[in-house]
Design a protein that fits this description.
162 residues, elongated
Amino acid sequence: MVFKKNLSVLLVLIVIVFLVTACDNTVQQELINYYDKELSKISKLEEEAIDAYHSVIGDNYVDDYTLYNELEEVIIPKYGEFVNELKNISFTTKEVNKLNQIYIKAAEKQYNAFMQMKQAIEKQDKSLVMKANENLENARKLLKDWERELERLAEENKIKFQ
């Protein structure tokens, strides 16, 4: 009788250890999939939009007309598609879902800033330009938060991204 009781306790412990290991492994697998596959599929959209934006601001600024056209024809459509694709990624773990929510929040803020920039040019409103730039800065801060959380989760799950 004591042997059966000890065996039962041992089996329960084995099941608990297996479940805990499986949960950790699930986060690890999902994080790798998120970074290597899901984000890789859509990162080109973000990259093209950001590159287009950088091609018409700062030292590359020519005039409002050029900036406006690039916003309307390339930046906003591509970045909008990126945001939608980012929102469509599904998860089974709350950790990776939380990570993606940070990215979505940053991307939405950046998208809204591009929209504000376009409106600012249409209305010739410098205060809207300032708000758009402020939103871009806030988006950058959120992206830094996302990077820190990604690094933390990767370290916690023994993943090394290159």
